[in-house]
């Protein structure tokens, strides 16, 4: 994975974090939306960890 792709993934991870905060700030956050955002964040985190050579719990299963 190139450094450019890693940088983009980190940026997308940050955008998902903002979306998660926005959803949680709503009066009645949608549990499916929150779960979907968390799942996407975890997938990005796992991909970055593989790139950096760090094994994560979800990747080791």
Gist?
The chain is an all-alpha fold and 61 residues long. The chain is 74% helix and 0% strand.
| Global shape | elongated
Kindly report the oligomeric state of this protein: single chain
**Mean pLDDT rating:** 89
Describe the main β-sheet briefly: none
**For the terminal residues, how far apart are their CA atoms?**
22 Å
Query: How many strands in all?
Result: 0
Q: Can you write the helix and strand succession as a string?
A: HH
Structural class designation = mainly alpha
Radius of gyration: 13 Å
Q: How large a portion of the residues is in β-strands, by DSSP E?
A: under 5%
Total helical elements: 2
pLDDT < 50 runs, ≥5 residues: none
Percentage of helical residues? over 70%
3D structure, described in words:
It is a single chain. The protein is mainly alpha-helical and about 60 residues long. It is built from two helices and no strands. Helix 1 packs antiparallel against helix 2. The chain is elongated. The mean pLDDT is about 90.
Key phrases:
0% strand; 61 residues; single chain
Layout of strands and helices, then pairs:
Layout: H1 3-25, H2 31-52
Helix pairs in contact: 1-2
């Amino acid at each position: 994975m190139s450094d450019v792709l890693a940088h983009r993934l980190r940026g997308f991870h940050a955008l998902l974090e903002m979306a998660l905060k926005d959803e949680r700030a709503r009066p009645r956050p949608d549990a499916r939306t929150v779960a979907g955002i968390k799942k996407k964040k975890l997938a990005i985190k796992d991909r970055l960890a593989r790139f950096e050579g760090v094994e994560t719990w979800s990747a080791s299963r």
